[in-house]
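## tool: complex_structure
## caller: assistant
## args:
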Amino acid sequence: MDLFKLHGAGDKSDSEKRYAQARLKLVNEIRAMSRGASDYVPRPVSERVLGILAKVPRHCFVPEGELCGAYANHPLPIGHGQTISQPYIVALMTDLLELHKQHSVLEIGTGSGYQAAVLSELAGKVYSIEIVAPLAVQAATVLGELGYANVEVKAGDGSAGWPEHAPYDGIIVTAAAEHIPQPLLDQLKPGGRLVIPVGGRFDIQELMLITKDREGQIHRMNIEPVRFVPLTGGE
Ligand code: SAM
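## result:
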Protein backbone atom coordinates (compact mmCIF):
# COMPACT_ATOMS: atom_id res chain seq x y z
CA MET A 1 0.00 0.00 0.00
CA ASP A 2 1.35 3.41 -0.94
CA LEU A 3 0.51 5.68 1.95
CA PHE A 4 1.80 8.70 0.04
CA LYS A 5 -1.24 8.32 -2.18
CA LEU A 6 -3.49 8.67 0.86
CA HIS A 7 -2.98 12.39 0.75
CA GLY A 8 -3.61 12.85 -2.93
CA ALA A 9 -6.91 13.36 -4.68
CA GLY A 10 -10.04 11.70 -3.34
CA ASP A 11 -12.60 12.46 -0.65
CA LYS A 12 -12.18 12.02 3.10
CA SER A 13 -14.08 8.72 3.27
CA ASP A 14 -11.76 7.40 0.56
CA SER A 15 -8.65 8.16 2.55
CA GLU A 16 -10.27 6.83 5.76
CA LYS A 17 -10.88 3.54 3.91
CA ARG A 18 -7.24 3.40 2.88
CA TYR A 19 -6.08 4.13 6.40
CA ALA A 20 -8.34 1.31 7.64
CA GLN A 21 -6.77 -1.05 5.09
CA ALA A 22 -3.29 0.06 6.17
CA ARG A 23 -4.22 -0.66 9.81
CA LEU A 24 -5.37 -4.17 8.90
CA LYS A 25 -2.14 -4.82 7.03
CA LEU A 26 -0.16 -3.65 10.07
CA VAL A 27 -2.24 -5.86 12.38
CA ASN A 28 -1.60 -8.86 10.13
CA GLU A 29 2.14 -8.14 10.28
CA ILE A 30 2.06 -7.90 14.09
CA ARG A 31 -0.01 -11.10 14.32
CA ALA A 32 2.44 -12.98 12.10
CA MET A 33 5.42 -11.56 13.98
CA SER A 34 4.03 -12.36 17.40
CA ARG A 35 3.08 -15.93 16.41
CA GLY A 36 6.63 -16.75 15.26
CA ALA A 37 8.38 -18.20 18.30
CA SER A 38 11.84 -16.75 18.91
CA ASP A 39 13.93 -15.44 21.81
CA TYR A 40 12.60 -11.99 21.01
CA VAL A 41 8.92 -12.85 20.75
CA PRO A 42 7.71 -13.82 24.21
CA ARG A 43 4.03 -14.51 23.52
CA PRO A 44 1.40 -14.06 20.83
CA VAL A 45 -0.53 -10.79 21.10
CA SER A 46 -4.22 -11.48 21.83
CA GLU A 47 -6.87 -10.98 19.14
CA ARG A 48 -8.63 -8.61 21.54
CA VAL A 49 -5.68 -6.20 21.51
CA LEU A 50 -5.06 -6.67 17.77
CA GLY A 51 -8.72 -5.71 17.23
CA ILE A 52 -8.08 -2.42 19.05
CA LEU A 53 -5.01 -1.68 16.91
CA ALA A 54 -7.19 -2.24 13.85
CA LYS A 55 -9.51 0.46 15.16
CA VAL A 56 -7.38 3.28 16.64
CA PRO A 57 -6.34 5.86 13.99
CA ARG A 58 -2.55 6.02 14.56
CA HIS A 59 -2.25 8.54 11.71
CA CYS A 60 -4.05 11.11 13.88
CA PHE A 61 -1.22 10.92 16.46
CA VAL A 62 1.80 11.34 14.17
CA PRO A 63 3.16 14.67 12.91
CA GLU A 64 2.11 15.76 9.42
CA GLY A 65 5.61 15.09 8.04
CA GLU A 66 5.57 11.46 9.28
CA LEU A 67 2.12 10.49 7.94
CA CYS A 68 3.53 8.22 5.25
CA GLY A 69 4.96 5.97 8.01
CA ALA A 70 1.87 6.04 10.24
CA TYR A 71 1.11 2.35 9.68
CA ALA A 72 4.65 1.04 9.38
CA ASN A 73 5.73 -1.22 12.24
CA HIS A 74 8.37 1.08 13.68
CA PRO A 75 8.68 4.09 16.00
CA LEU A 76 8.41 7.62 14.59
CA PRO A 77 9.65 11.00 15.83
CA ILE A 78 6.98 13.22 17.40
CA GLY A 79 9.15 16.26 18.17
CA HIS A 80 11.02 17.35 21.33
CA GLY A 81 13.41 14.41 20.80
CA GLN A 82 10.61 11.93 21.61
CA THR A 83 8.94 9.11 19.71
CA ILE A 84 5.66 7.27 19.24
CA SER A 85 6.52 3.63 20.00
CA GLN A 86 6.65 0.74 17.53
CA PRO A 87 3.09 -0.64 17.08
CA TYR A 88 4.22 -4.21 17.93
CA ILE A 89 5.59 -2.98 21.28
CA VAL A 90 2.38 -1.02 21.95
CA ALA A 91 0.40 -4.22 21.29
CA LEU A 92 2.66 -6.39 23.46
CA MET A 93 2.77 -3.97 26.43
CA THR A 94 -0.99 -3.42 26.27
CA ASP A 95 -1.63 -7.17 26.15
CA LEU A 96 0.58 -7.77 29.19
CA LEU A 97 -1.65 -5.44 31.25
CA GLU A 98 -4.71 -7.73 30.74
CA LEU A 99 -7.11 -4.78 31.07
CA HIS A 100 -10.89 -4.85 31.47
CA LYS A 101 -13.57 -2.18 31.43
CA GLN A 102 -13.70 -2.00 35.25
CA HIS A 103 -9.97 -1.24 35.37
CA SER A 104 -8.20 2.01 35.95
CA VAL A 105 -4.79 2.38 34.33
CA LEU A 106 -1.90 4.82 34.67
CA GLU A 107 0.44 5.58 31.77
CA ILE A 108 3.79 7.31 32.28
CA GLY A 109 4.92 8.96 29.02
CA THR A 110 1.83 10.13 27.09
CA GLY A 111 3.96 11.22 24.10
CA SER A 112 1.62 11.44 21.13
CA GLY A 113 -1.38 10.03 23.03
CA TYR A 114 -1.63 6.92 20.81
CA GLN A 115 -0.92 4.38 23.57
CA ALA A 116 -3.45 6.19 25.79
CA ALA A 117 -6.09 5.84 23.05
CA VAL A 118 -5.40 2.10 22.82
CA LEU A 119 -5.71 1.77 26.61
CA SER A 120 -8.88 3.83 26.56
CA GLU A 121 -10.59 1.17 24.40
CA LEU A 122 -9.85 -1.53 26.99
CA ALA A 123 -9.98 0.11 30.43
CA GLY A 124 -12.64 2.14 32.24
CA LYS A 125 -10.36 5.06 33.03
CA VAL A 126 -6.92 6.09 31.77
CA TYR A 127 -4.63 8.57 33.55
CA SER A 128 -1.59 9.62 31.56
CA ILE A 129 1.37 11.81 32.53
CA GLU A 130 3.82 13.48 30.15
CA ILE A 131 6.90 15.42 31.28
CA VAL A 132 7.16 17.53 28.08
CA ALA A 133 4.31 20.00 28.56
CA PRO A 134 3.67 20.82 24.84
CA LEU A 135 3.36 17.09 24.09
CA ALA A 136 0.87 16.69 26.96
CA VAL A 137 -1.23 19.57 25.58
CA GLN A 138 -1.10 18.25 22.01
CA ALA A 139 -1.98 14.68 23.08
CA ALA A 140 -4.89 15.85 25.25
CA THR A 141 -6.22 17.91 22.31
CA VAL A 142 -6.08 15.02 19.83
CA LEU A 143 -7.58 12.55 22.32
CA GLY A 144 -10.39 15.02 23.04
CA GLU A 145 -11.08 15.63 19.34
CA LEU A 146 -11.27 11.88 18.71
CA GLY A 147 -13.70 11.42 21.60
CA TYR A 148 -11.51 9.43 24.01
CA ALA A 149 -13.46 10.83 26.94
CA ASN A 150 -12.15 8.42 29.59
CA VAL A 151 -8.55 9.65 29.26
CA GLU A 152 -7.13 12.33 31.54
CA VAL A 153 -3.70 13.77 30.64
CA LYS A 154 -1.49 15.93 32.81
CA ALA A 155 1.95 17.48 32.36
CA GLY A 156 4.46 16.44 35.01
CA ASP A 157 7.04 13.93 36.20
CA GLY A 158 5.43 10.51 36.14
CA SER A 159 8.15 8.91 38.30
CA ALA A 160 6.05 9.94 41.29
CA GLY A 161 2.93 8.36 39.77
CA TRP A 162 -0.45 10.07 40.21
CA PRO A 163 -1.33 9.38 43.85
CA GLU A 164 -4.73 11.16 43.74
CA HIS A 165 -6.21 8.40 41.55
CA ALA A 166 -4.24 5.43 42.95
CA PRO A 167 -4.35 2.49 43.30
CA TYR A 168 -4.31 1.26 39.69
CA ASP A 169 -5.10 -2.12 38.16
CA GLY A 170 -2.44 -1.47 35.53
CA ILE A 171 0.55 0.86 35.14
CA ILE A 172 2.47 1.20 31.88
CA VAL A 173 5.72 3.12 31.56
CA THR A 174 6.68 3.99 28.00
CA ALA A 175 10.18 5.32 28.74
CA ALA A 176 13.10 3.34 30.15
CA ALA A 177 13.80 3.62 33.88
CA GLU A 178 17.22 2.89 35.44
CA HIS A 179 15.27 1.26 38.25
CA ILE A 180 11.57 0.76 38.97
CA PRO A 181 10.24 3.88 40.75
CA GLN A 182 8.96 2.88 44.22
CA PRO A 183 5.87 5.17 43.99
CA LEU A 184 4.67 3.12 41.00
CA LEU A 185 4.97 -0.11 42.99
CA ASP A 186 3.13 1.53 45.87
CA GLN A 187 0.33 2.75 43.58
CA LEU A 188 -0.31 -0.69 42.08
CA LYS A 189 -3.36 -2.58 43.40
CA PRO A 190 -2.94 -6.07 44.83
CA GLY A 191 -3.55 -8.22 41.74
CA GLY A 192 -2.30 -5.34 39.53
CA ARG A 193 0.23 -5.41 36.69
CA LEU A 194 3.03 -2.97 35.86
CA VAL A 195 4.80 -3.06 32.49
CA ILE A 196 8.06 -1.13 32.30
CA PRO A 197 11.29 -1.07 30.29
CA VAL A 198 14.23 -1.14 32.70
CA GLY A 199 17.81 -0.20 31.85
CA GLY A 200 20.21 2.62 31.12
CA ARG A 201 19.93 5.20 28.36
CA PHE A 202 22.68 3.62 26.24
CA ASP A 203 21.97 -0.02 27.11
CA ILE A 204 19.66 -2.59 25.65
CA GLN A 205 16.87 -2.44 28.20
CA GLU A 206 14.63 -5.23 29.43
CA LEU A 207 10.86 -5.03 29.18
CA MET A 208 9.58 -6.26 32.55
CA LEU A 209 6.20 -7.38 33.83
CA ILE A 210 5.80 -6.70 37.55
CA THR A 211 2.83 -8.21 39.34
CA LYS A 212 1.62 -7.54 42.86
CA ASP A 213 -0.12 -10.55 44.35
CA ARG A 214 -3.14 -10.48 46.67
CA GLU A 215 -0.79 -10.48 49.67
CA GLY A 216 1.09 -7.46 48.29
CA GLN A 217 4.20 -9.44 47.28
CA ILE A 218 6.01 -8.18 44.16
CA HIS A 219 7.00 -10.61 41.38
CA ARG A 220 9.21 -9.69 38.41
CA MET A 221 9.37 -11.31 35.00
CA ASN A 222 11.71 -10.41 32.10
CA ILE A 223 9.74 -10.23 28.85
CA GLU A 224 12.13 -9.16 26.10
CA PRO A 225 15.00 -6.80 25.23
CA VAL A 226 13.78 -3.37 24.06
CA ARG A 227 15.04 0.10 23.21
CA PHE A 228 13.18 3.10 24.68
CA VAL A 229 13.90 6.79 25.22
CA PRO A 230 14.89 7.39 28.86
CA LEU A 231 12.57 8.22 31.73
CA THR A 232 13.74 11.69 32.74
CA GLY A 233 13.05 13.67 35.92
CA GLY A 234 13.51 12.12 39.34
CA GLU A 235 11.52 10.44 42.04
N1 SAM B 1 3.28 6.37 24.82
C1 SAM B 1 3.73 7.31 23.83
C2 SAM B 1 2.89 7.33 22.60
O1 SAM B 1 1.93 6.55 22.49
O2 SAM B 1 3.18 8.17 21.73
C3 SAM B 1 5.18 7.12 23.46
C4 SAM B 1 6.05 7.62 24.51
S1 SAM B 1 7.71 8.01 24.16
C5 SAM B 1 8.41 6.48 23.74
C6 SAM B 1 8.18 8.27 25.87
C7 SAM B 1 7.59 9.51 26.48
O3 SAM B 1 7.90 9.52 27.87
C8 SAM B 1 8.16 10.79 25.91
O4 SAM B 1 7.13 11.60 25.41
C9 SAM B 1 8.84 11.46 27.11
O5 SAM B 1 8.79 12.86 27.10
C10 SAM B 1 8.06 10.86 28.26
N2 SAM B 1 8.73 10.88 29.57
C11 SAM B 1 10.05 10.67 29.83
N3 SAM B 1 10.26 10.76 31.16
C12 SAM B 1 9.05 11.03 31.74
C13 SAM B 1 8.64 11.23 33.08
N4 SAM B 1 9.49 11.19 34.11
N5 SAM B 1 7.33 11.47 33.31
C14 SAM B 1 6.44 11.52 32.28
N6 SAM B 1 6.79 11.35 30.99
C15 SAM B 1 8.08 11.10 30.73
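## assistant note: The chain is about 30% helix and 25% strand. The beta strands are 76-79, 82-84, 104-108, 125-130, 151-155, 168-173, 188-198, 205-212, 218-226. Handing back to user.
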